[in-house]
């Protein structure tokens, strides 16, 4: 349409010139054509602006609730109790050297504070662990203490510490090997270099305490300074968010580099990664740490980008997801850290996961 109008303008101008029409008449003709162009631009621009606004509004969703403000909070994790109404949200509070524990319900009551750390960061929960008579365990990285602490859940008794030689451990994820039941912890140290940007620890119990031995290092394909790792146990994959390359690197559980995905879909730091197992279809959801966080959906099988969803969270670091229903979150619970005032992290927002799926144009999870 625009090309046709431009051609019409050029043809008209040439006709006027060739016929040697007076300057006044030529000016009048040119004004008519220019007015037509202006009207076209106005109509076309408004239509597209309204379309873009409607599209953006259709993707923005509201949280059902949020935690009370904290002192530089970072990474959440969800513990599912046998009785769903007693489930918990764990949230690292870096600025106060502790972990906050909330009830996984709409009122988000503060249950307890787990003290005694310097700068806790990543949290990974193992339910029905092979240790301490099957207790549930939370593994927590402490960046400034250069340590990984282990707590029982829901009593939060400290039952172990290891990884003292890891420089500034950040992200953490656990993996139980199906063949022999061995439990592993994967950690990304902020200052990891070369082929030691991801470190795997084999977990063991010794005299009633939990410890771990580094048995594998990898990640030379990553740029420096990574913070997030997530293990997809069923696929035998280790996913690492490469903040500087703006993609996600994929390894097998032994550290062999497989592929990457997400290039072109991230504008800021690539941060949290969760696996959404919706039975008929499984997704990876990765947060893009923009001023208004963008949550990117990828197909688990093909890594194809499926959708982008925005909530109200800002500059999100960690995210956590539970697809099983909870009393106040029948579509599942997604927790996203938020940093609206650039303080490092003020609170976490709680979403019903089916709201995310609806906004993404995907079917309900369960």
Number of strands: 24
Strand content: 35-45%
Structural class of the helices, strands and pairings? alpha+beta
Q: Spans with pLDDT under 50 lasting ≥5 residues?
A: 1-10, 16-58
Helices and strands in order, then pairings?
Layout: H1 2-18, H2 23-59, E1 65-66, E2 73-79, E3 88-93, E4 98-103, E5 110-114, E6 120-126, E7 136-142, E8 147-153, E9 158-162, E10 169-176, E11 183-189, E12 198-206, E13 209-218, E14 228-232, E15 237-242, E16 247-252, E17 257-261, E18 270-278, E19 281-288, E20 294-299, E21 305-310, E22 319-322, E23 333-338, E24 347-352, H3 353-359
Antiparallel strand pairs: 1-24, 2-3, 3-4, 4-5, 6-7, 7-8, 8-9, 10-11, 11-12, 12-13, 14-15, 15-16, 16-17, 18-19, 19-20, 20-21, 22-23, 23-24
Question: What do these coordinates show?
Answer:
The structure is a single chain. The protein is of the alpha+beta class. Helices cover 17% and strands 42% of the residues. The chain has 3 helices and 24 strands. The strands form 6 sheets. It has a 4-stranded antiparallel sheet with strand order 1-24-23-22. Strands 2-3-4-5 form a 4-stranded antiparallel sheet, with no helix packed on it. A hairpin with a 2-residue loop joins strand 12 and strand 13. Helix 1 (2-18) runs antiparallel to helix 2 (23-59). The chain is globular and about 50 Å long.
Give a brief description:
Helices cover 17% and strands 42% of the residues.
Relevant terms:
366 residues, alpha+beta, 4-stranded antiparallel β-sheet, 24 strands, 17% helix
